[in-house]
Design goal:
This protein is of the alpha+beta class and 91 residues long. The chain contains four helices and four strands, in the order βββααβαα. A hairpin with a 2-residue loop joins strand 1 and strand 2. The protein is globular, with a radius of gyration of 14 Å. The N terminus is likely disordered.
Length: 91
């Protein structure tokens, strides 16, 4: 079964189109979840640790935000994505 234009295919399964995000700025978890097609907090956390998902920033103790530019880079090729080491992101 061929995918229609714009649909992502993973393991032979067609995934829904992700919600759109602006190119710049930051997104909270509900928007990240919608953009990724419903990935759970735990999956995102484990992928962050492994360097397979963009790292979040914590502007406050109870807030996590992900950079939209990195989310778009991840979405363009999730299997090949590798996050920059933490030292490079801080610079």
């Amino acid at each position: 079964m061929a995918a229609r234009t714009g649909e992502r295919v993973r393991g032979g399964t067609q995934l829904p189109q992700p919600a759109s995000l602006p190119i710049d700025g930051f997104s909270s978890f509900p928007r990240v979840k919608a953009f990724t097609g419903g990935l759970s907090r735990e999956t995102i956390r484990l992928w962050e640790i492994a360097g397979r998902f963009p790292r979040h920033i914590s502007p406050t103790q109870r807030t996590a935000l992900w950079p939209n530019a990195e989310l778009h880079r991840w979405a363009s090729n999730p299997e090949a994505y590798r996050a920059a080491p933490a030292e490079q992101q801080a610079a």
